[in-house]
Amino acid sequence: MSYSHQTVGSGSRAARRTFEFGRTHVVRPKGKHQATIVWLHGLGDNGSSWSQLLESLPLPNIKWICPTAPTRPVAILGGFPCTAWFDVGELSDDGPEDWEGLDASAAHIANLLSTEPVDVKVGIGGFSMGAAVALYSATCCALGRYGNGIPYYVNLRAVVGLSGWLPGSRNLRNKIEGSHEAARRAASLPILLTHGLCDDVVPYKYGEKSANCLSISGFRHLTFKSFEGLGHYTVPKEMDEVCNWLTARLGLEGSRA
């Protein structure tokens, strides 16, 4: 099953961009369907590579949806086009954010989850840039709206971010503390963040800062795990952590230890 070349517009400006998303790969649950998770690849990758890894995990009750990001020029690559969920320059605390790209990707993911059965728990996970979009979606879920003000309706039950960072962290605490409902939603959303101490692409400090920002912004059910000797990739020990966390947080049945 694939959603090929789906175009999603985002933003309230009159001349907004449109984004053409690539193929979506779906891994069906091998057991009772209890949860659906959209998993987002990193910069320059595609949904196929992650679908193969996710299919091998001992999580028979999860349906995995692995979309492919639009191909676009990316500032950090000198404008070279590749698959990217949003445009990004150098990672910094005060760099500009591509809010339009972030909103378009978050809306595309929400659309993929919108047709899931009501009794199925839904979540978002990702690696690197995919983790950044997963965390941005978590903030949209808490605030009840995208960055452009359009309502966000998906009730996320779990968010996982591997080797990533949180876009738009500067004003997050003020936004959430300014709304009782946002604070309530943030406090109830479980988030797992993992990061390698030897990551030379998205340095560990950005994962640590992201975890701290989410924590002080009211995301109380946040787990941050660091991995000694791990660079910008994933290893079985890290994926075991993901499996155990998802099984516990989503109350999954029949998962192998």
TrEMBL record:
It comes from the Eukaryota. One of its GO terms (molecular function) is hydrolase activity. SUPFAM superfamilies: alpha/beta-Hydrolases (SSF53474). Residues 25-247 form the Phospholipase/carboxylesterase/thioesterase domain. InterPro entries: AB_hydrolase_fold, PLipase/COase/thioEstase. This is Phospholipase/carboxylesterase/thioesterase domain-containing protein. It comes from Citrus clementina (Clementine).
